[in-house]
Each structure stands twice: as C-alpha cells, then as structure tokens.
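dumping this here so i dont lose it
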C-alpha cells in the first residue's frame, strides 16, 4: 500500500467559483494595487499605464493578484473566436493571408503575380 503524507485520503481543494460554496468578496484593502503588477513590458506605471490595455500578461497577473483567475479565460475566448470565425477561414481560402486582388469573376482567376515575374529594378534613389 502507498504511504500517504496526510491523514485524510482526500485533501480539501480551494474554493470553486462554480457554486456550492460561499465566495467572500475581498475588501479594497486586501486587493494589491495595480502598480505592483508586471507584464511583458515590465511595470506599466505613470504615462505607460495605458499600455495595460494591450499587455495580456499584465491583465493575467492582475487577475491572479485580485483572485479572479476566471477572468483569464475572457481574452483567451475572444482570441479563439476570432481565430476560428475569421482568421482561420482567411488562411484556408487565401494561403498568403490576404484576400485576392482584382478578382476576375468570369474566369475565377485572382490577381496573383505569375511565377516568372521579375520586379523592375530601381536604379535611382529618390
């Protein structure tokens, strides 16, 4: 038989947000200030605080500091929906991830360059 390090077989898990246990909302004194959170671009304080809107790592660290880990799923869900509803279809239909140029609907040919195309050599600087 395996040796257990605790007395009970099942240890108590943390509070689940799905229900069944009462979630006690922390007071403002218990929530750490936003200036302590760090993201991809370091501590975003002062004039750089507006970069917090685009720094996904800062958002995730802030959610963990506030004990709101479930908020991490929101940007992940939006990225998932965008990828599979728009960007995935764009990559599937157009391999270069750009829509076709000058579509000829009669011959169903797009405006891609031919294989033996050679660009004009620029000999003079502007």
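and the seq i came up w/
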């Amino acid at each position: 038989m395996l040796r257990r390090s605790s007395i009970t077989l099942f240890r108590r898990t943390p509070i689940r947000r799905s229900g069944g246990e009462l979630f006690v909302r922390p007071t403002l004194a218990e929530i750490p200030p936003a200036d302590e959170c760090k993201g991809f671009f370091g501590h975003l304080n002062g004039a750089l605080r507006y970069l917090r809107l685009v720094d996904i790592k800062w958002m995730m660290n802030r959610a963990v500091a506030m004990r709101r880990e479930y908020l991490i799923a929101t940007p992940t869900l939006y990225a998932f929906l965008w990828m599979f509803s728009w960007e995935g279809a764009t990559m599937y239909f157009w391999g270069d991830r750009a829509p076709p140029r000058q579509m000829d609907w009669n011959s169903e040919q797009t405006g891609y360059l031919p294989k033996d195309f050679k660009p004009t050599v620029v000999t003079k600087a502007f």
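The radius of gyration is 27 Å.
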